[in-house]
Amino acid sequence: MDVNTIAKSSLGPIAAFTLARILPRSFAFWMADRITAHLSRNQSSEMVQAIRSNQAVVQSLEEGDPVLDKAVWNVLRHAGRCQVDLYKAIGAGPRALLRSCKMENSLAEGLDYCRESKRGLVVVGAHMSNFDMFLLSIHSRGIKAQVLSYPNPQGSYRVQNRIRKKFGVDLAPTSMKSLRTAFRTLSSGGIVATGVDRPGLGGEPLKFFGRQVVLPVGHARLAVRTGSPILAGVVQSNGWGKYQAIGSPLFEPESSGDEHQDTLDLAQRVLQWFEDCIRERPEEWLMFYPVWEETG
To answer: Any idea where the domains of the chain sit in the sequence?
Structure first.
């Protein structure tokens, strides 16, 4: 079994968790850098090809541009260091998670507004930087949400979901049943959270970095049907082992009488905010699946 297979299997997070807990952070970073450098050189890897094609679009580069070789490693290197930081914080307990991921006012104010107004809130994220650090840290702050996850996770994603559940995160694979539960949660003033930048779950054609792509719109549909605002958020690195979570202004759903168009318009507004965040820090967009089928 080679390092590429281990990285995608359930063994990857288990090995990373063990090593991150026992090794000094500097040495764990060094090891993560060596592993991700090796991974980035495997041009036949589906993961490397996906990162390369995604970064070509985000950075407006041709597929053959040698700059993409460094871009792929930058993404994988950042992902490796995020894992080290996450597993060190998990090993040290909830207080370490709180210290490691600061919630900026832009995000806290949106959460506080909906809690005080007793309105439902749809919180959406993208695969930016140390998302799990943020997810576990807000749960440690007592903010409870129903989290809609990708169905049928495999390999390392299955282990990640076990970690989330171990911390008490209410994780529900996206399905008709979980969406009905999400509707009830929002209608009663609760919080529903999900990611919006990974293709493969169906959805509707939207514009992302000037190109059409089919991405999920269920979050926008829930918001329109329940009258709940959407709060978008991303995690950004902020130095040695530290991260910050920033939020968007609240995206209020419109009610024009055309639910389908209102859903598409809301989903597009949210996606534009994420596009700006990704463009600012492309190396922190840890999307390992091809978002655009063709980049040429």
So the answer is: 3-92, 99-284
